[in-house]
Write a structure and sequence with these properties.
The chain is α+β, with helices and mostly antiparallel strands. About 15% of the residues lie in helices and about 35% in strands. It has one domain: Fumarylacetoacetase-like, C-terminal domain (Fumarylacetoacetate hydrolase, domain 2, Alpha-Beta Complex), CATH 3.90.850.10. This is Fumarylacetoacetate hydrolase.
Length: about 220
């Protein structure tokens, strides 16, 4: 059976999604709350399958965890091929932006860190990349997330250690980026656990908002 290609709306058209890259520890306050240091010289990345993508609406609580966390992020959509790109070329290749949530099985991540194992089971699972419709509009400055009306995360995009262009340019030294690739740019402080029945509202200024219900 051939699965349909995941996609997101982009200004009324369709943006087929090829891969999802995620940068880790791109906000110093989030790294600190997780007990981690940040590397200001070289970013690091993990990935999610395009089939982890889901849009606003119901998000099932995943199996295998009792500690599901939200991480609100700015998401970038790549529209042209990039290899060893300059920051200027990387910035020009970004054709859309959205607010997204990197869902994380925090208990599995902690176990993987403790045993020096990969994070795949903690980060890449069904419905773990919740992303609003893309927009070609500029983003910022604010990024925030509420759960049941209470503010959990409230930050600014200028708090990112690596900028949009720096993230995409560095990523293009590791991979041949292609149209359809998404890049999740990290999360500010305030990540916390979710329960079934929780209503999440996520926003990046200037972009379509995201609403999700954990079921």
């Amino acid at each position: 059976m051939t699965l349909p290609t995941p996609s997101l709306p982009l200004d009324g058209s369709d943006f087929p999604v090829r891969r999802i890259f995620c940068i880790g520890r791109n906000y110093a306050d989030h790294a600190a709350e997780m007990g981690n240091e940040v590397d200001r010289e070289k970013p690091f990345f993990f990935t999610k399958s395009a089939h982890a993508l889901t849009g606003p609406g119901d998000v099932p609580y995943p199996p295998g965890t009792t500690d599901l966390h939200h991480e609100v992020e700015l998401v970038l959509a790549i529209g042209t091929e990039l290899v060893d790109a300059t920051p200027e070329a990387a910035a020009a290749a970004i054709v859309g932006r959205a607010v997204g949530i990197d869902m994380t099985r925090r208990d599995l991540q902690a176990e993987a860190k403790d045993k020096r194992r990969p994070w795949d089971a903690a980060k890449d699972f069904d419905f773990s990349a919740v992303v609003a419709p893309l927009s070609s509009a500029p983003a910022g400055p604010g990024i925030r997330l509420t759960v049941n009306g209470a503010v959990r995360q409230d930050g600014r995009l200028d708090q990112m250690i690596f900028s949009e262009a720096e993230i995409v340019a560095f990523l293009s030294t590791l991979y041949r980026l292609m149209p359809g690739d998404l890049v999740m740019t990290g999360t500010p402080a305030g990540v916390s656990a979710l329960q079934r029945g929780d209503r999440i509202e996520a926003e990046v200024d200037g972009l379509p908002p995201l609403s999700a219900l954990i079921v």
